[in-house]
Amino acid sequence: MSNHSDITAVLLAGGLGTRLRSVVSDRPKILANICDQPFATFLLEQLMLAGIRDVVLCTGYLADEVYEELGHAYKSLNLIYSKEDVPLDTGGALRLSLPHIKSETALVMNGDSFVNIKIAAFIDWFFKKKCPASLLLANASDTRRFGKVLVDDGGRLLAFEEKGSGSGSGWINAGIYLIKKSLIETIPDGKPFSLEREFFPKLIHQGLYGFQFEGEFIDIGTPESFALAEDFFSLFKV
Questions:
Q1: CATH for 78
Q2: In Å, how far are 51, 72, 198, 223 from 29, measured between CA atoms?
Q3: I need a labelling partner for 12 at 20 to 30 A (CA). Which of 63, 86, 114, 238 fits?
Q4: Residue 120 sits in which domain range?
């Protein structure tokens, strides 16, 4: 079992948020106002409860606003910033943050989704599994918007289906990962690179596993899903 406080968390918060611009036009998605607080605080509270101490925020679009809002600390968390000068996508942003990752394994989280899970349970499972990387998988009633993740009975990933390619319920990538630092070092430096489309599919044959979780999940990346966020987060207000 890992000492959770030694794990560096990385929040991917540099996206342009173009789909959400019609309802959140004056700030990056991670600062979207939900239940009278920035969306980031829900993620930071979750990390704090897991025993995490160090959080790297990968910023890009309106990066200065993120720093001005959150500063260098949130309660017991130490906040560090890794700023993109040009858009690098999720993988490129993670690679840029590498000098700030002090642990051998990084906990990586998308900055526009939330899973109502105790992160510590995912971390403990990962270290027992002894795999190089893993994804948190949520169960969705309609996978078309997210794409479907196919797994075997033991949780090993078999394939990724593209967004819009099928309908119905199934497992989706919930945007929380545990990745060995040695794997992050293989990501091309200084170039746009996608974790979802380029990184994880190549790891399937190396023993990539998904932690399957049946609880509540929300992605605030579209006006339609953002409209549901107030009711969703009223249950988890910090």
A1: 3.90.550.10
A2: 25, 19, 24, 11
A3: 238
A4: 4-136+175-190+216-233
